[in-house]
């Protein structure tokens, strides 16, 4: 196999994206998955629109939402739950400030995980992989050790507002969290 050369296309402008809003997962039990994302990953259950005609839940933290959709066995077969932990599987990844604390918590909870180390130019990144209750892969890492260097010169990376200043959340996230307590009533379960 040869290496394919990437040609830069400079006359196309990207979509006017601002940030990642949410990821969505089909799950066997919304209740069990909510508990996992709250207890293990620190997400907060938030109100979802009552107009939805299917069982689900929305969670939010770290500037991103997770939308859980309960599987309807009449619509399709649910993917196999127990698969080996494979770092090359589809996954979502969360930046972490202390990998030791993550390992300790997962061990205390009796959760199986796999670790890997990526090295680039003498810089090391620790990775830890595990599954949620439905078999979706989750990675925890200290990936910010490696600088983001665009391969293409035609696009600029857009910094997250407040992220580089250590503030963490943008306007929308702060607004959501301010109203979280007031809107915790009338969950759509």
Automatic annotation (TrEMBL):
It comes from the Eukaryota. CDD domains: VOC_like. PROSITE patterns: VOC. Residues 19-143 form the VOC domain. It holds the Pfam family Glyoxalase. InterPro entries: Glyas_Bleomycin-R_OHBP_Dase, Glyas_Fos-R_dOase_dom, VOC_core. This is VOC domain-containing protein.
């Amino acid at each position: 196999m040869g290496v394919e050369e990437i040609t830069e296309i400079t006359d196309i402008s990207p979509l006017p994206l601002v940030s990642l809003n949410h990821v969505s997962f089909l799950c066997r039990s919304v209740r069990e998955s909510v508990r996992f994302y709250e207890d293990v990953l620190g997400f907060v259950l938030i109100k979802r629109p009552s107009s939805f005609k299917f069982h689900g839940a929305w969670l939010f933290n770290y500037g991103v939402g997770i939308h859980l959709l309960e599987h309807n066995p009449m619509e399709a077969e649910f993917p196999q739950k127990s698969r080996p932990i494979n770092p090359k599987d589809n996954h979502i990844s969360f930046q972490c400030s202390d990998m030791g604390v993550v390992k300790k918590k997962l061990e205390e909870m009796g959760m199986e995980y796999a670790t890997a180390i990526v090295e680039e130019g003498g810089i090391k990144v620790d990775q830890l992989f595990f599954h949620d209750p439905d078999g979706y892969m989750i990675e925890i890492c200290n990936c910010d050790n490696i600088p983001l260097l665009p391969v293409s010169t035609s696009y600029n990376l857009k910094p997250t507002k407040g992220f580089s200043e250590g503030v963490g959340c943008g306007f929308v996230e702060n607004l959501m969290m301010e109203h979280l307590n007031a809107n915790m009533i009338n969950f759509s379960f």
